[in-house]
Amino acid sequence: MRIHTSRRSVFLDPVEPEFYNDPYPAYRAIRAEVPVFRWEQYGYWCFARHEDVSALLRDRRFGRQILHVASREELGWPETPEHLKPFYAFESHSLLELEPPVHTRLRGLINRSFLSRQVERLRPAIASLANGLIDRIEETGEAELLNDFATPIPVIVICDLLGVPTEMAQQLLAWSHDMVAMYQARRDRAVEDRAVKATLEFSSFMRDYVKRRRKEPRDDLISELIRAEEEGSKLSEDELVTTAILLLNAGHEATVHALGNGIKCLIEHEIREAIGEAHVEELLRYDAPLHLFTRYALEDLEYAGLRLKKGETVGLLLGAANRDPARFPEADRFVPARQPNPHVSFGAGVHFCIGAPLARLELAVALPILFRRLPKLALAEQPCYRNAYHFHGLERLKVTF
Fold first, then answer.
1. pTM higher than 0.85 for the full model?
2. Is 32 helix (H, G, I), strand (E, B) or coil?
3. Is residue 202 helix, strand or coil?
4. 330 CB neighbour count, 10 Å cutoff
5. Calpha distance 77→66 (Å, rounded)
6. What SS3 class is residue 50?
7. Residue of 112, 177, 203, 356 with fewest CB within 10 Å of its CB?
8. CA-CA-CA-CA torsion for 232, 233, 239, 243, nearest 10 degrees?
9. Per-residue b/e over 287-317, b at no fewer than 16 CB within 10 Å?
């Protein structure tokens, strides 16, 4: 890493193992010298302080979408490459990439299913699932907990919530991994081709599944979305399909990382008992599953002395903000009783993670059960993180017990 203080820029390769395995020393140095900086590898301005990240997540002068207020020609953007058009056509209906009023309409259709009081009814099912997974490995004395525990829980839970058959879980996982790879720093043409293929196959599956479910509605979220579409004007089929896929992808991707990172952290800190909600919040702060989130400037503006033009991208370093000592005393220490704990791992503002109550519940239920059932849990090897920045999750988690 090279920090150019006078130019307010940083040279930092996000696919460098020393960085993605432990980005926090780099964040610490950046915050101290250039907390607002141009990341040379990405080519846009980034913010590393909690104060800035929290404010910009809520600042309505920034958004996830820009082509609703500016043309590609106005922005100086080239046309979308032909081979990527199917992927971006799909993304154009994604809740994650939209701004009000379309975002407000789509979010309103699914918000009720993810409210805390609604997801709370899933507690017994999550507990049963966690216990069942442990039953499979308990006698073996060793396991790889990403595959054996951290992945199945959020995948099966979101499949059940949506009404998608859980026997499709492995295929859904494969499609999801290929699609979200489009947002990783190590993206290349092969990654793009796999993402487009997965998008087309996943969309085709979901369209066929929706057709079948129209004839046999049930008490699940896909049936609710179908009813909304059939009532007219609230939801198009393209929006329905994209929303269902987004919820399946987002409903497990980050939570898998949060569970894996959390288990590693609890083992390293020798915490095995009385794991509660405060532990969950501190785990989410201490080693967040998502480290970088971007926004577009929706107009020419000035923020903290920085002039930004309409259409410019800014990067919000969630992982750095969560370790900012100006907001969190002893920020690099894991402090389960930390209060208050205003981490930004779920974002903020209109794009605050809609699945946050479900993710929190999955962590709060699954982690205590794991450590209660396997009290001698220990790392079999030092875990390494995946080369998948801006996601931050383990490659594998081998343990003994």
1. yes
2. helix
3. helix
4. 9
5. 12
6. helix
7. 112
8. -80
9. bbbbbbbebbbbeeeebeeeebebbbbbbbb
pLDDT tens digits for range 215-266: 999 989 999 888 888 887 678 889 999 999 999 888 788 999 999 999 999 9
Q: Are 129 and 155 in contact (CB under 8 A)?
A: no
Taking the C-alpha atoms of residue 298 and residue 312, their distance in angstroms, rounded to an integer, is: 8
On whether the CB atoms of residues 354 and 64 are closer than 8 A, the answer is no
Hey, what amino acid is at 355?
G
The amino acid occupying position 4 is: H
> 217 is written with which tokens?
């509605």
Q: Which residue shows structure tokens 């993304």?
A: 91
Cβ-proximal residues to 188 (8 Å cutoff; 6+ apart), any chain: none
Residues 263-290 pLDDT 10s? 999 999 999 999 999 999 999 999 999 9
Rounded to the nearest angstrom, the gap between the alpha carbon of residue 93 and the centroid of all alpha carbons in its chain is 18
**Does residue 155 register a pLDDT over 70?**
yes
Give the separation between CA 395 and CA 178, rounded to whole angstroms: 16
Q: Which residues have C-beta within 8 Å of that of residue 313, sequence separation ≥ 6?
A: 42, 44, 294, 295, 296
Angle between helices 356-373 and 123-137 (to 10 degrees): 40
Q: Contact at 8 Å (CB) between 348 and 321?
A: no
Measured distance between the N- and C-terminal CA atoms of the chain, rounded to whole angstroms: 39
Q: What is the crossing angle of helices 102-111 and 221-230, to 10°?
A: 130
**Domains in the chain, ordered, with CATH?**
2-400 (1.10.630.10)
Report d(CA 190, CA 202) in Å as an integer: 18
3-class DSSP state for residue 394? strand
Tokens, residue 346: 């779920």
Collapsed DSSP state (helix, strand, coil) of residue 313: strand
Report the candidate in 207, 96, 110, 212 with the shortest Cα–Cα distance to residue 161.
Answer: 110
So what's the pLDDT on residue 118? 87
